[in-house]
Each structure stands twice: as structure tokens, then as C-alpha cells.
Inverse folding.
């Protein structure tokens, strides 16, 4: 294991350790609750061109990475998806900085096949992924007892298009499910309600004094943005239609954006609107419990975009605990009194995407944080006009 100051870094190519100094390459490891596969982007200064000559960046070549600090690190497995010579350093040779984009090794296990699973969705997923040696699996239980047919389809596509959209559990508090592999080779199938109710793994604070002192758990920089109202407008109020296959009747109900998940004492940072914005056709309705769960799952999981209303992008010093799906607490100074935390921005957030970077000298973690709702006091005059859970 190569040690570089306070960091541990090791790259293996086809099980062979790359014998190069860490300042000669840079990389980032990225995972997201919205993407099944984590990725790795590697930049390497191939000064002699030998690495390219011997196909070190050929498509499909396996890379193993270990990256972290003396306290904790990430270990994961990737395969080259594509590579690109960014610029020639000497026109007489094929040398220079090469950028290689890689995807998690589980992708190489995919093949088209057919099969059937007489199981709950969570049970089917456990069986499907058992062919791969993940470091850990964290799978929330579902209902959805049914026969799930996989017809001439890869496992990853089957899970993403057939299983995930239907996932539902009575204990899920009307919250959508997410499925992803994180940057530490862990497979996750998690309900949003369970994720946001976990204890934050760290409190990250922003203040200039901590930045100047290079203190851990410090927000170096941050940015905030809110999802476009046009993107979430269709989720505010909807008609839900379903067909009863037993008596032929059509059922109509109405839902609102605050239903998913159930909210208590929190408000959406969006002006309330009681107009119907869209409709959803769930398809056949049945008295069979598993099929009822499937319909509820389709209704709830169609609202996932509403969870991304409030967004924050922060960068902190490398912390390998900060992975997609984890909770963090953020403390931002009040705009009128820097000794007090902001009542609006200081809150608990879910990590939607994490990116751990090595720039050749230091390590950083950049996080995309999300929350759907906030706690507001009566001092906010706009509060009565907002969607309230």
C-alpha cells in the first residue's frame, strides 16, 4: 500500500500494482443513489507512451483502487469503459495525459437471459446479486410477493426497469426506493424514509476560520440551488386512475406532493397550489396483496423527482464515510449574525451523490446534498402559503 503524506493510495491494473508516484495521476470516485453503477475517472501522465503501447487503457481492463486516509479508505473494482489521449506532449511519440473513464466491475457480469422469481422484490434482488462478491449488501425489505418474469434481459436492466419501479412496503411511509452500488463496493437497495431517518454520520460546518486552519469536518465551499418549479409542477396534485380487473370499474383518487413520503411538522419550499397538474394510470387493480403492493409502488416511485427540491453542493476535506445514501448535518452561519446557524440552510441532508477526488496532491470530497422539506418557524411570513405536510 502506497502512503503519500496522510493518504493511502493504490491502483492495481489486472491485479498488478501500478508502480507510479501519486503526483503523476489524478482520479475521482463517484457514486449516486440515482445510478446503479459507480464510476472512476482517471488521468495519468503517460510520459513515455509505454502504458498505452501495452494496452493499459484497453476497454475492459480491470482496475482495483484503494483510496483514503490512515483512518479509513475506499476499496472498489472497475473496468475501463473508454479512454482518450488529451494532448500530445511530443508530436513524435504517442505520449501525454490520458483520461480513462471506468465503470464498476459488476457491469462485466451482465448477460441477456430469461428466468422467473416467485418472491418479494427484495428477495429477487438478493438472489440476482448473489453472483457477485460485494463487500456488503444493504437491502430494505419489500412486499410485492409475485412472480417476476425476466425475459431476454440483463440483470441490471431487469432490476432497474421491472423491480425497482414497483417496490413497496407497508413500513415505507409512502417513500420511494433507490438502488445503487457505492464507491466502497457496497450494494444498496434502500427506502428513502429509512435513509433520512438514520443518524447523520458527521456534522459539517462552514466558517472561514476552520477553512484557514484546514480543519476536518469543514465545508470548504458550497453552493445551493432549487429544482425548477416546471420540473416538479406535475407532481403537486394528481389524479390516480386504476382498473379493477375483478368487476371492471375504474377507480379515481387524488394525491399531492406532500404525500410521498409522509411529512410531519415540515413544509415544502414551494408555494401551495390546489390545481390538478397531471394524472397517472396505474393499470390493473387487484385484491391480491402482492399486486396491490405493485400498484402502490408504481404510484409512489413515480414521485422520486420531488425529493430533489432543495439542493446543496459542498466540498470538504477527504472523508471516505461520506457515501451516497448517508445522512449529514450541515451548519451554515446566519446571514445577519455569523455566530448563529442559519435557520433555513442548517439542517440534515441526504447525500444523493458523492465524489471523492485525488488531484495529485490532496484529497477532497464533493457532495450533492438533497432535502425535500424544511422546518420553518412562524417568523417566516411566507410559511402559511407553502405546502404543509
Amino acid at each position: 500500500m502506497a502512503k503519500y503524506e496522510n493518504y493511502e493510495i493504490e491502483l492495481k491494473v489486472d491485479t498488478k500494482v501500478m508502480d507510479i508516484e501519486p503526483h503523476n495521476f489524478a482520479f475521482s470516485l463517484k457514486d449516486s443513489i440515482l445510478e446503479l453503477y459507480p464510476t472512476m475517472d482517471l488521468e495519468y501522465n503517460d510520459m513515455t507512451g509505454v502504458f498505452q503501447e501495452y494496452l493499459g487503457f484497453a476497454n475492459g481492463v480491470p482496475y482495483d483502487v484503494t483510496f483514503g486516509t490512515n483512518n479509513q479508505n475506499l476499496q472498489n473494482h472497475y473496468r475501463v469503459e473508454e479512454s482518450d489521449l488529451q494532448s500530445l506532449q511530443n508530436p513524435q511519440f504517442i505520449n501525454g495525459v490520458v483520461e480513462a473513464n471506468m465503470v464498476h466491475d459488476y457491469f462485466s457480469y451482465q448477460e441477456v437471459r430469461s428466468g422467473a422469481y416467485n418472491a418479494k422484490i427484495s428477495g429477487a434482488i438478493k438472489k440476482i446479486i448473489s453472483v457477485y462478491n460485494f463487500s456488503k449488501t444493504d437491502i430494505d425489505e419489500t412486499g410485492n410477493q409475485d412472480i417476476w418474469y425476466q425475459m431476454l434481459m440483463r440483470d441490471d436492466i431487469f432490476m432497474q426497469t421491472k423491480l425497482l419501479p414497483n417496490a413497496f412496503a407497508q413500513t415505507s411511509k409512502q417513500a420511494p426506493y433507490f438502488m445503487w452500488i457505492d464507491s466502497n463496493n457496497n450494494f444498496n437497495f434502500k427506502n428513502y424514509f429509512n435513509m433520512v431517518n438514520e443518524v447523520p454520520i458527521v456534522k459539517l460546518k462552514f466558517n472561514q476560520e476552520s477553512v484557514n486552519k484546514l480543519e476536518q469536518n469543514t465545508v470548504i465551499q458550497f453552493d445551493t440551488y432549487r429544482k425548477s418549479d416546471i420540473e416538479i409542477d406535475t407532481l403537486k396534485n394528481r389524479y390516480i386512475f386504476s382498473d379493477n380487473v375483478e368487476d371492471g370499474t375504474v377507480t379515481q383518487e387524488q394525491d399531492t406532493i406532500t404525500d410521498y413520503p409522509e411529512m410531519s411538522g415540515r413544509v415544502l419550499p414551494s408555494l401551495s397550489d390546489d390545481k390538478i397538474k397531471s394524472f397517472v394510470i396505474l393499470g390493473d387493480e387487484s385484491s391480491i396483496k402482492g399486486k396491490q403492493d405493485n400498484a402502490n409502488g408504481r404510484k409512489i416511485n413515480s414521485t422520486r423527482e420531488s425529493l430533489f427540491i432543495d439542493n446543496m453542493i459542498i466540498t470538504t476535506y477527504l472523508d471516505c464515510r461520506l457515501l451516497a445514501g448517508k445522512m449529514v448535518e450541515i451548519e451554515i452561519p446566519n446571514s445577519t449574525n455569523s455566530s448563529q446557524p442559519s435557520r433555513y440552510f442548517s439542517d440534515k441532508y441526504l447525500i444523493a451523490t458523492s465524489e471523492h477526488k485525488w488531484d495529485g496532491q490532496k484529497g477532497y470530497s464533493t457532495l450533492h446534498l438533497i432535502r425535500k422539506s424544511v422546518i420553518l418557524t412562524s417568523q417566516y411570513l411566507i410559511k402559511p402559503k407553502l405546502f404543509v405536510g
Remarks:
- Residues 229-303 form one domain.
- DSSP finds seven helices and 24 strands in the chain.
